[in-house]
Amino acid sequence: MMKTKKWKNVAAAAGAVAALTFALTGCSGNAGANTKCSDFNKMSSDDQSKVIEQLLKDKGQNNASALKVGAYKVSAKAYCAVKSSDSTLTGLSG
């Protein structure tokens, strides 16, 4: 159990460094379906919604309802819970 906690702390620290790097460099790109699970899980709820909206737009579903975006966000969270942190959201069907 201690090993898992240690790796979670390392992953959290790495994510914080990455987030700070993006903030300082002004990177605000939205990768949509190419977003890694590790990045998606660290995002705010609003940013997660923006990623899902982009994912749906990339699949030709413009102006998705709040209900659809919310449902996809729940699906993305479940998907990322069982996939590796390097997996991307491309596995979500739409």
Name the features.
mainly alpha
Present the secondary structure layout.
Blueprint: H1 2-25, H2 37-42, H3 45-58, H4 66-82
- Tell me what portion of residues adopts beta-strand conformation: under 5%
Radius of gyration: 14 Å
Question: What's the N-to-C terminus distance?
Answer: 37 Å
Number of strands: 0
Structural class: mainly alpha
Largest sheet: none
Mean pLDDT over all positions: 79
Percentage of residues in helical conformation: 55-70%
The succession of helices and strands, N to C, reads HHHH
How many structural domains does the protein architecture include? 1
Number of helices: 4
- Note poorly predicted spans: 16-28
**What is the general shape?**
elongated
